[in-house]
Specification:
By secondary structure, the protein is α/β, with parallel strands linked by helices. It is built from 6 helices and 13 strands. It folds into 2 domains: 65 residues, Ribosomal Protein L25, Chain P; 160 residues, SPOUT methyltransferase, trefoil knot domain (Alpha/beta knot).
Length: 237
C-alpha cells in the first residue's frame, strides 16, 4: 500500500479523517507509522496529499490531511476482457488498475465457463476491493469503472462499433497474419483480450469484421494475469 485511499465517510470534519479495518491494520502491521509521522493519502476521485497521524491505536487511525496534488494521468486504453477464472480476475484487475486502466468491459465468450459469472469474486463489492488495491499500489485515486456484457454477439454487433469509432481497435489473438504489437502513437486504444484457451474462430472473425486488428505479443503463451500487463506495457512504451 503506497497510498491510503480515503472516502467521504472517513471525514469526521474538514481536514480530519478516521479510518479502521484493513487500512488501519496495514498501517500498524506493515508501515508501522507512529503519531506525528506523515502518510501519503488521497481522496477517491480527487487529490493526493499527506496525512499527519494524530492518533493510532487498536481501534482508530486519525489523521489531519492536506490534499493538494493531482493524481497521475490514466492510460488511454479501454480493456475488453473475456471473464477469466475468478482467482485470475482479482489479480488482473489489480494489475490493470495499478497501470492506469480506467474502463473495463468484462464480456462472455464461448470458452468462458458459466460458473465464472456466479462466483462471489464477480460481485461489485469484490471488484471494487481489487480496484482499490490497484489504486493504492500506484498512488492513484481515480476509481475505474467495470461494465459487464454477458452477450458476446450483441455486444460486438451493437455496441463495440460505436466504442471503437476514432480509436485503435486491437485484438490480442495470435492468428495467422498477425503483426507484432507495438507502442501506439497518441490515439486511444480499445484492447480485447480473450479467455484462457483463446477466442473461437467465429468470435475472432466477428471482431475482425468490425475493424479489430489481431496482434501478437510474442511466441510464448501466457496466462491472462501475465499477458494483460505485458500488453499494456507494450502499448504505452
Amino acid at each position: 500500500m503506497n497510498l491510503i485511499l480515503l472516502f467521504e465517510d472517513d471525514f469526521v470534519e474538514s481536514g480530519l479523517v478516521e479510518i479502521k479495518g484493513r487500512r488501519l491494520d496495514h498501517v500498524k502491521q506493515v508501515i508501522r507509522t507512529k503519531v506525528g509521522e506523515d502518510l501519503t493519502v488521497g481522496i477517491e476521485n480527487g487529490k493526493i496529499g499527506k496525512g499527519k497521524v494524530t492518533r493510532i491505536d487498536d481501534d482508530i487511525l486519525r489523521m489531519e490531511v492536506v490534499l493538494d496534488i493531482e493524481p497521475p494521468p490514466p492510460i488511454d486504453i479501454t480493456l475488453v476482457l473475456a471473464l477469466p477464472r475468478p482467482s485470475v480476475l482479482n489479480r488482473t484487475l489489480i494489475a490493470a488498475a495499478s497501470m492506469g486502466v480506467k474502463t473495463f468491459y468484462l464480456i462472455n465468450a464461448r470458452r468462458v465457463e458459466k460458473s465464472f459469472w456466479l462466483s462471489p469474486k464477480v460481485s461489485q463489492e469484490n471488484i471494487r476491493e481489487q480496484l482499490i488495491l490497484g489504486l493504492e499500489q500506484a498512488k492513484d485515486t481515480v476509481m475505474p469503472k467495470v461494465i459487464f456484457k454477458k452477450g458476446f454477439k450483441p455486444f460486438v454487433e451493437d455496441e463495440l462499433p460505436q466504442l471503437i469509432e476514432g480509436n485503435q481497435a486491437i485484438l490480442a489473438h495470435p492468428v495467422k497474419g498477425t503483426v507484432p504489437l507495438r507502442g501506439q502513437t497518441g490515439t486511444p486504444v480499445i484492447l480485447v483480450v480473450g479467455p484462457e484457451g483463446g477466442l473461437i474462430d467465429y468470435e475472432v472473425e466477428m471482431l475482425k469484421s468490425i475493424g479489430f486488428k489481431p496482434v501478437s505479443a510474442g511466441e510464448r503463451i501466457l496466462r491472462v494475469e501475465t499477458i494483460v500487463p505485458v500488453l499494456l506495457s507494450k502499448l504505452t512504451s
